[in-house]
Design goal:
The protein has 83 residues and is an alpha+beta fold. The protein is 64% helix and 12% strand. It has a two-stranded antiparallel sheet with strand order 1-2. It is elongated and about 50 Å long.
């Protein structure tokens, strides 16, 4: 997920209202807040796994096998840069 800094607080506010995350002030640094996913949040992620996997498969289904191999190689290169 990529979110601009001002939007992060609003996003966490919405997730908290829906019971998907909890927020706890950091005991050693009052500028920090610890966010944790709740059991309801984990359940929702589990529920979304299959539809997201199906969407991913449908998206790449139009690629020829050589193109798919190239895409995978490029994504692995990008992932290695972040590591």
């Amino acid at each position: 997920m990529i979110e601009q800094t001002p939007g992060t607080t609003r996003l966490v506010d919405r997730l908290e209202r829906k019971g998907l995350v909890t927020r706890t002030p950091c005991p050693t640094d009052r500028r920090r807040v610890l966010c944790r996913i709740t059991d309801n949040g984990l359940d929702l992620l589990t529920e979304l796994d299959e539809p997201v996997n199906q969407c991913d498969a449908q998206t790449v289904s139009t690629l020829a096998s050589e193109d798919l191999a190239s895409l995978i190689s490029l994504l692995e290169t990008v992932r290695a840069v972040d590591s």
